[in-house]
Write a structure and sequence with these properties.
The chain is of the alpha+beta class. It has a five-stranded antiparallel sheet. The protein has a five-stranded antiparallel sheet with strand order 7-6-10-9-8, sandwiched between helices. It has a five-stranded antiparallel sheet with strand order 12-11-15-14-13, sandwiched between helices. The longest helix has 38 residues, at 436-473.
Length: 846
């Protein structure tokens, strides 16, 4: 029996090697003789029908050496009514071809059995069987979902993975549509994508889509990755579309968690501020991880102190964020201290120092005997009524009962072995409860934030200590002085450089004079502040010696050099090395109205004379302190009454916003004009001239000069002779009587007599006597000698040596200062309630 004309039907696969239009066919009788031979068999093996018909197939087609094995294989399967296998077949040209066979028993009406054989090359058969096995595996065992849709998108066939995903039997899905098991929005999305593939032929490749089932709880998330391609027959007719579906919900959640971690790395810890860092932590977790987040820190942490070892103490709500303005009741706190119930999740977290996960808060409330918003403490809170709103939110009006949080995570904020507080995360509006993976992510958030919070806490601690040190070294307030009216400002820089070495001072000197000082130590931090304190102390000591400004700077230069040497000797462990400083030292005399100044690497002062025109004082620049060996020079000029001297550090006029010249122009603009209240003027200077975000400290000292009235000063030149003391006593008595200070005549005569007598004995040339009356009575005796007066205790047998001792007992203060022409010994006696200076016009002083 031969089939010379292949018949093609719709069910035949064009790839099937056993299809009738491709395979060789033959018919064998019961004895195994060939009784039918097809044209395709002749083409494949080369035997014509007359060459094989009537002959036994084993003899005609099987090589002698293969006949025994072939006979055993055929005999073993003959009883089953069919056989499939691979046999070596001899071709007409003598070569051997391995062929795959299918044999089926055919029963004839006369009782004679025949065998119908279909054969094809073994390679094609094996490939086809492999393909069939693959197809069978795809629909039976493949874990990735496969769905075959017709042109109208009805489901023709699905594999078992799709059935498991849809939670329905395979048979129930045949003929169904997407919206039979997906919620409407997701079904429309999926069908729209498949219809595009059918119409355009462009495949989908791993396109992520939502695929929430109708049987899922409301709000549950499902994400699938879809690939799809159009099916066509050889003639190009569209048969439908095949869809490959993979559930990637867990993978998508993991990707989001990783994205949240990356986001947290960028957004948490951007500043060295404890509260700001806590707010960053709360905001980064909403809404990606939780519906509401609260960060509660132990009170010492917020203040920059050390937390207690057992994590006990008061808690402070440092930050709170949520997807709604009004947080769920469990997350609310009343104004003031954060208090937890005896054993909520937060208390356990702090006590045990481990994360706590409560997936069902409703069950936890029932178990603890509490329920509803009023029992929020059982879920980690206190009743929400009257509570303060979350960050950025407002408390709502009374209304229907609110849906409270249903799931809670609490993780400790631990860094460097210490617990700083807790982070509470609630879900109230998202239906899925927290999972272990969420807890792991929250713990990672908290771990990263805790290090940043601890860094901020340590910074706050060090900054507070440094600021306290600096403020303790700076003058709390400058003393009022009759020679000048003063106003001042000290503004530390922001950020990590907040503590610096800028300082200012107003130091009373002898003879009603005053010293005005502004300085700046190079560097920032505690070393700069400590060095500033040493320099300020040294300036006070040197000012007490009544040295000239250039001599004061020379002494400070030596001190800075010694400090730098000490730091080099101790090594870098002491912190930032101080390598220099700048200083401006000015002395103003209200009697002569002269001002003597010297500067060491410091900006010169701005002088505003009574006409309101500001100018930069011309004085030698001088090297910065600490270079050593270089000279300093002083400049002296006269200041009219009511002149303004503006001393400042370079942070006022130097910034990234403008250069020094522009800064000085701004300063000139503010200082120019008529006489104004000094304190208001000082505030205006810092507001208009100082940069908005200074990178260096700023110190400003404004001084408006006053002049001692002529009738408050009396001076005489006495010839060096035995009668000098007698004349000095008479002149003093007459002047005190004129001033109405008769009660001081006896004492002052004694003081003047002793000082003039010493000048006559130990000096040469004329003696100058000057009396000054202002807040105290000042007596000054000047001579041409540089010999220092020496106070000593005379013995009972000594004839002299008691003069200066008496002077010291009769006066409030006394001392000596040296000039280029000699020295001046001075004394001060208190005058209570007797003003001595004439205030400048407009100063408000009588």
């Amino acid at each position: 029996m031969a089939m010379d004309t292949p018949l093609r039907t719709f069910t035949e696969s064009p790839e099937d090697p056993f299809s009738l239009h491709r395979a060789a066919t033959a018919v064998l009788d019961a004895r195994g003789a060939v009784v039918g031979w097809s044209v395709l068999a002749e083409h494949l093996l080369g035997f014509r029908p007359e060459d094989v018909i009537g002959r036994r197939a084993l003899e005609a087609l099987i090589a002698p050496e293969d006949r025994e094995a072939a006979l055993e294989a055929v005999t073993a399967c003959a009883g089953a009514g069919g056989w499939f296998g691979v046999l070596p077949v001899r071709r007409a040209d003598g070569r051997t071809l391995r062929m795959g066979f299918r044999a089926r028993l055919v029963v004839r009406a006369r009782g004679e059995d025949e065998w119908f054989l279909v054969g094809a090359p073994a390679d094609e058969v094996i490939q086809w069987e492999t393909d069939r096995s693959l197809l069978d595996g795809i629909f039976r065992r493949c874990p990735i979902g496969i769905a075959v849709h017709g042109p109208d998108l009805d489901i023709l066939r699905v594999n078992r993975a799709i059935a498991r995903f849809a939670d329905a039997p395979v048979e129930a899905l045949r003929g169904a549509r997407m919206d039979d098991f997906l919620i409407a929005p997701d079904a429309r999305t999926a069908e729209r994508a498949l219809r595009s593939v059918v119409e355009t032929g462009r495949p989908l490749i791993f396109t992520e889509q939502p695929a929430r089932l109708r049987t899922d709880p409301p709000g549950r998330e499902r994400i699938v990755a879809v690939s799809a391609f159009r099916m066509q027959d050889p003639a190009g007719e569209v048969l439908g579309v095949t869809q490959i579906v993979e559930d990637v919900t867990d993978r998508e959640r993991a990707r989001r968690r990783l994205a949240l971690l990356n986001d947290a790395s960028e957004r948490i810890g951007t500043t060295l501020d404890v509260t700001r860092t806590a707010q960053e932590l709360a905001r980064v977790a909403v809404p990606g991880l939780a519906d509401c987040v609260a960060v509660d820190l132990l009170e010492p942490v917020v203040l920059g102190g050390e937390p207690s070892p057992d994590a006990s103490g008061r808690l402070y709500r440092a930050a709170q964020a949520g997807v709604t303005e009004q947080p769920p009741p469990s997350a609310r706190r009343p104004e003031g201290e954060v208090v937890f119930a005896p054993d909520p999740a937060q208390a356990r977290c702090l006590r045990e120092r481990r994360p706590v996960l409560e997936t069902d808060l409703g069950a936890a409330r029932v178990a603890s005997g509490t329920a509803g918003a009023g029992a929020a403490a059982g879920a980690g809170g206190v009743p929400g009524g009257g509570g303060r709103p979350a960050a950025g939110g407002v408390a709502g009006a009374a209304g229907p009962p609110e849906a409270d949080a249903h799931s809670l995570m609490v993780v400790p904020l631990g860094a460097r072995g210490a617990v700083l507080g807790v982070v509470s995360l609630w879900r109230a509006y998202r239906p899925e409860p927290f999972e272990e993976d969420d807890l792991t992510l929250a713990a990672e958030f908290a771990s990263r934030a805790a290090v940043s919070i601890d860094n901020a806490r340590r910074y706050t601690q060090q900054r507070t200590a440094a600021l306290s040190l600096q403020r303790s070294l700076l003058p709390a307030d400058v003393p009022e002085h009759p020679a000048v009216e003063v106003a001042h400002r000290y503004l530390p820089a922001g950020g990590a450089t907040e503590v610096g070495g800028d300082w200012f001072d107003v130091i009373p000197l002898s003879g009603a004079r005053v010293a005005l000082v502004v300085g700046d130590v190079v560097g920032h931090g505690v070393p700069a502040a400590a060095t500033m304190g040493r320099l300020r102390t040294a300036v006070h000591t040197l000012a007490g010696l009544d040295l000239e400004p250039d001599e004061v700077l020379s002494q400070l230069d030596d001190l800075v050099g010694r400090i730098a040497g000490e730091q080099q000797a101790t090594g870098p462990v002491t912190g930032e090395q101080i390598v220099g400083a700048s200083c401006l030292y000015a002395v103003y005399d209200p009697v002569s109205r002269r001002c003597s100044l010297a500067r060491a690497g410091h900006p010169p002062p701005v002088v505003v004379r009574p006409d309101g025109r500001p100018v930069l004082a011309e004085l030698p620049e001088g090297p910065p302190l600490g270079l050593g060996g270089l000279p300093f020079e002083s400049a002296e000029f006269e200041l009219p009454e009511g002149s303004l001297i503006a001393l400042y550090t370079d942070g006022l006029v130097e910034s990234g916003r403008h250069d020094v010249d522009e800064g000085l122009e701004l300063l000139y603009e503010v200082l120019s004009g008529p006489c104004r209240d000094l304190d208001a003027l000082c505030a205006e200077v810092t507001r208009k001239v100082m940069p908005e975000h200074p990178t260096d400290d700023v110190a400003v000292l404004l001084a408006r000069t006053r002049v001692l009235a002529g009738d408050r000063v009396a001076s005489w030149e006495l010839p060096a002779g035995p009668t000098a003391a007698q004349r000095a006593r008479r002149l003093t008595a007459d002047q005190l009587a004129e001033w109405g200070l008769d009660d001081l005549v006896f004492t002052t005569e004694l003081i003047v007599s002793e000082l003039v007598t010493n000048a006559y004995r130990y000096a040469s040339g004329p003696v100058h006597l000057r009396l000054i009356r202002h807040s105290s009575l000042i007596c000054e005796v000047s001579d041409g000698s540089t010999t220092a007066p020496h106070l000593r205790r005379a013995r009972s047998t000594d004839e002299g040596g008691r003069g200066l001792f008496l002077v010291a007992q009769l006066t409030e203060r006394w001392g000596a200062r040296y000039t280029r022409d000699g020295k001046t010994v001075w004394t001060e006696q208190p005058l209570d309630g007797l003003p001595g200076l004439r205030a400048p016009v407009g100063s408000g002083m009588g």
